[in-house]
Design a protein that fits this description.
Shape: globular
Structural class: mainly alpha
Order of helices and strands: HHHHHHHHHHHHHHHHHHHHHHHH
Distance between the termini: 33 Å
Strand content: under 5%
CATH superfamily of one domain: Ypt/Rab-GAP domain of gyp1p, domain 3
CATH topology of one domain: Cyclin A, domain 1
Low-confidence stretches: 1-6, 8-94, 116-124
Number of strands: 0
Radius of gyration: 22 Å
CATH architecture of one domain: Orthogonal Bundle
Length: about 425
C-alpha cells in the first residue's frame, strides 16, 4: 500500500478534527484544484444538539455477526438456509417471506434476481457436495476469526507493518459475516461514532429541509426494490435509507442531497445498522471522494479526464477508439464513479470492489474502469460510431464482470496512487494552459 493510504489509516486513532484536517490535505488528488474544488471545513451544523457520551447504539457486534452470518439489518438469516431457500414453517401468518439469494436479493419464480447475475456468483459460495461445503465453511470460519481479531485490535493493525497483511486480506475478500463491521472501521466511521455518541439518533429527530426531504423521498423507491431490505414501500429499510440521507443533508449542507448518494447509502445499509451507515457515508464523501457530490461535479469531471489520460498507457487501443470518436469521458464513467460501481457490476463483484476501495481508496475505481474499457473496446471496434461505442460500454458482457474473472484483472493492473498524482498534475497543467 502507498504511504499516502497508510498515513490515512493511521490518522483514524487521532481526534476526528485532526483526522479531517490531515485527510483534507491529502485529498487534493480527488478534489482537483484546491482553489476551486477544496471542500470547506467540515463542521456539524446542529450546535444546539448536545453531545451524549453514553453510547448504547446498536453496535454490530462480532459475536452477532458470527452467529447471524449477516448484518442485523437482514431479517432473513433466521428463515433461510445457506443455499438461499426458505425453511418450512417460517412463513408468517400475514405474508409469505420471499426467497432470496445470499445477498438478500429476491429470486422471482423464474429464478431471476433482477440484478446482474446475483444468484450465481458469491464470495461465500459453497460447493455442491458435503465435503466441499464443509471445507468451504471451515475456510470461511477461519477467515472470519482473523477479521474479528483485526477489528478487536484495530489500532495495532493500522499502526504496524501488519497493515500490508490487512490490505492483502481486503483484496482476498472480506467474509460476509464481518463485512459490515470491517467496512465501518476501514472507512473511519467508528471514530466519529465514538466521538459523537447519540448524535445520529438526535439528527433523526430533526426536521431538515422539507424541499430536500421531498427530493429524497422521490428516490427512495428506486433503490434496489428487489432487495429484501427495501422491497416494502415505506417499510423499515426504506425509512432507514430516508433517515440516513436526510441526516446527511443536515450535516453536509454544502452537498445537501444528490441522487448519487442513494445507491451508496443503500449498500452501506445492506451491511450495517443505520448509524454506522450514516457515519460511513460521511467518511466516504469527506475523505474518499471529496467534491464528488457538490453542484457542478467538478471533481468527477476531473477524474474523467484523468481516466482518459491513463487509458493512453493502460489501454491504448481503447484510448484511440475513444479519442477518434471524440467521446467525453463523462458520458461513460459518470455513473461508475458517482455510484462507485454499485449499479454496474454483479453484486459479488461490487462487494469485492468495495472491500478494496475502503482499504486502498479511489485508485481501485480507476482500475476497475480501465479494465472494463480495455476488455470492451478492442481493435474490432475501431469503426464504430459514438452511439455504438457508448452502448458497448453500457452493456458489458456478464461473463467479463464475474468476480472470478474481473477482480484478478483489477488487482493485476499496475496503477498506484503515485500514478494518479502524476496524471492529476498533468490534467491541472493542461487546464491552466487552456487545453
Amino acid at each position: 500500500m502507498s504511504t499516502k493510504n497508510i498515513d490515512r489509516h493511521k490518522t483514524f486513532i487521532k481526534s476526528t478534527e485532526q483526522h479531517r484536517r490531515e485527510m483534507q490535505q491529502r485529498s487534493s488528488i480527488s478534489n482537483g484544484s484546491r482553489s476551486t474544488t477544496t471542500l470547506p471545513p467540515q463542521q456539524f451544523n446542529l450546535p444546539d444538539i448536545d453531545r451524549d457520551d453514553d453510547d448504547d447504539d446498536l453496535a454490530y457486534r462480532a459475536d452477532d455477526a458470527h452467529s447471524n452470518g449477516r448484518t442485523h439489518n437482514r431479517r432473513q438469516s433466521a428463515s433461510r438456509r445457506d443455499d438461499g431457500s426458505t425453511r418450512e414453517g417460517s412463513t408468517s401468518n400475514r405474508y409469505q417471506l420471499p426467497v432470496c439469494n445470499r445477498f438478500g436479493f429476491i429470486i422471482d419464480d423464474d429464478g431471476d434476481n433482477g440484478v446482474s447475475n446475483l444468484r450465481n456468483f458469491g464470495d461465500d459460495g459453497f460447493g455442491e457436495d458435503k465435503q466441499s461445503r464443509e471445507q468451504a465453511i471451515s475456510r470461511i470460519l477461519k477467515r472470519e476469526k482473523k477479521w474479528l481479531d483485526m477489528v478487536d485490535n484495530w489500532d495495532k493493525w493500522i499502526l504496524s507493518k501488519r497493515f500490508e497483511h490487512m490490505k492483502k486480506r481486503c483484496r482476498k475478500g472480506i467474509p460476509s459475516a464481518v463485512r459490515g463491521k470491517a467496512w465501518f472501521y476501514l472507512s473511519g466511521g467508528h471514530i466519529s461514532l465514538a466521538k459523537y455518541s447519540k448524535f445520529y439518533e438526535k439528527l433523526e429527530r430533526e426536521p431538515g429541509d422539507e424541499q430536500v426531504n421531498d427530493e429524497i423521498r422521490k428516490d427512495i423507491h428506486r433503490q434496489f426494490p428487489n432487495h429484501e431490505l427495501f422491497r416494502e414501500a415505506n417499510g423499515p429499510g426504506q425509512q432507514s435509507l430516508y433517515n440516513v440521507l436526510k441526516c446527511f443533508s443536515i450535516v453536509r449542507k454544502e452537498i445537501s442531497y444528490c441522487q448519487g448518494l442513494a445507491p451508496v447509502a443503500s449498500i452501506l445499509l445492506m451491511n450495517m445498522p443505520p448509524s454506522h451507515a450514516f457515519w460511513s457515508l460521511v467518511a466516504i464523501t469527506d475523505h474518499y471522494v471529496p467534491g464528488y457530490y457538490l453542484a457542478g461535479f467538478q471533481a468527477v469531471q476531473l477524474h474523467g479526464k484523468m481516466l482518459f489520460g491513463l487509458l493512453k498507457k493502460h489501454a491504448p487501443v481503447a484510448y484511440r477508439i475513444l479519442k477518434k470518436g471524440e467521446i467525453d469521458p463523462v458520458l461513460y464513467m459518470f455513473e461508475w464513479f458517482m455510484c462507485l460501481f454499485v449499479r454496474n457490476l454483479p453484486w459479488a463483484t461490487v462487494l469485492r470492489i468495495w472491500d478494496i476501495f475502503l482499504c486502498e481508496g479511489i485508485v481501485v475505481i480507476f482500475k476497475a474502469a480501465i479494465v472494463i474499457i480495455a476488455n470492451t473496446l478492442t481493435s474490432d471496434h475501431k469503426k464504430l460510431d459514438q452511439h455504438d461505442i457508448l452502448n458497448l460500454l453500457k452493456h458489458v458482457p456478464e461473463k467479463d464482470l464475474q468476480e472470478s474473472v474481473f477482480i484478478p484483472k483489477v488487482l493485476k493492473l499496475n496503477l498506484t496512487d503515485k500514478h494518479l498524482k502524476q496524471e492529476h498534475r498533468r490534467q491541472l497543467h493542461k487546464k491552466a494552459r487552456g487545453k
